């Protein structure tokens, strides 16, 4: 959904856990205050999951969706919620005119060099505009670290892919504080993942997002990689009697008003 060079996103697999992925976006949107005149940009809009909530909460503003995935944009177009949809690499995208809000849910963690990226986005805003961002902060948890470890064991001669990662909360505060009024916070969601036929639920949750670079790099060893990952996380996330699992999932949020 961003500028990361991988095969296109699969909306079907991504939407298996639509409600769990939507809740942090709604929490972020709920923290956005009144806006001045200007566009609302859904940066890394994906399939348009947040479009309905953005339209309802911010009526009267043009809604611009930006994403690099043609498959996701086709889904977003079907919502009928966007004034304009733009296929672009969000790492280099620039607004046509200063927006009142740049809203980015679970997208910017795929990009590098946040120390330059976040100020660049802030500089696009209209005076009094807001940059609202939510990103997973889960890379050190067994659910994510397990893909690194399984890949090293399964594909020892291949370079280990770079999975998405972000800075610490206080780093974002220090980075953004000179630019305006900033709030930074983290929330850990206890996600109840339903039983998945023939798969560990945590694998199902991660394989459509964080694990994509590892699964693509594994090539013919993909199934061996998956088996190694599942064997590894079984102890970290034990299955419940009904085959479901609990996954504590940490997310980082910030609001910057310039």
Automatic annotation (TrEMBL):
Keyword Zinc-finger assigned: no
MF-aspect GO terms: trans-aconitate 2-methyltransferase activity
InterPro entries cross-referenced by the UniProt entry: Methyltransf_25 (IPR041698), SAM-dependent_MTases_sf (IPR029063), Trans_acon_MeTrfase_C (IPR023149)
Record-level GO BP terms: methylation
Coiled-coil residues: none
Protein's UniProt keywords contain Methyltransferase: yes
A Pfam family that the UniProt record links to this protein: Methyltransf_25
Organism superkingdom: Bacteria
Keyword annotations from UniProtKB, A to Z: Methyltransferase, Transferase
Domain Methyltransferase: 40-129
Record protein name field: Trans-aconitate 2-methyltransferase
Organism: Salinihabitans flavidus
Lineage per the UniProt record: Bacteria, Pseudomonadati, Pseudomonadota, Alphaproteobacteria, Rhodobacterales
């Amino acid at each position: 959904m961003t500028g990361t060079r991988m095969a296109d996103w699969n909306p079907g697999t991504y939407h298996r856990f639509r409600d769990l992925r939507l809740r942090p976006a709604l929490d972020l949107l709920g923290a956005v205050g009144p806006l001045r005149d200007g566009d609302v940009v859904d940066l890394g809009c994906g399939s348009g999951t947040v479009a309905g909530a953005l339209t309802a909460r911010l009526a009267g503003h043009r809604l611009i969706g930006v994403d690099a995935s043609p498959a996701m944009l086709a889904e977003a177009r079907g919502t009928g919620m966007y004034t304009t949809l733009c296929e672009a690499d969000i790492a280099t995208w620039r607004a046509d005119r200063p927006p009142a809000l740049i809203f980015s849910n679970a997208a910017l963690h795929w990009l590098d060099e946040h120390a330059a990226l976040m100020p660049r986005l802030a500089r696009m805003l209209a005076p009094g505009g807001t940059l609202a961002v939510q990103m997973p902060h889960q890379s050190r948890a067994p659910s994510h670290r397990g893909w690194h470890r399984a890949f090293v064991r399964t594909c020892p001669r291949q370079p280990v892919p770079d999975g998405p990662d972000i800075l610490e909360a206080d780093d974002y505060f220090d980075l953004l504080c000179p630019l305006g009024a900033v709030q930074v916070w983290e929330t850990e969601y206890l996600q109840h993942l339903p039983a998945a036929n023939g798969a560990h639920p945590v694998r199902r949750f991660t394989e459509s997002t964080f694990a994509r670079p590892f699964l693509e790099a594994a090539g013919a060893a993909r199934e061996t990689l998956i088996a190694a990952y599942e064997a590894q996380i079984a102890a970290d996330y034990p299955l419940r009697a009904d085959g479901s699992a609990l996954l504590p999932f940490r997310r980082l949020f910030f609001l910057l008003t310039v």
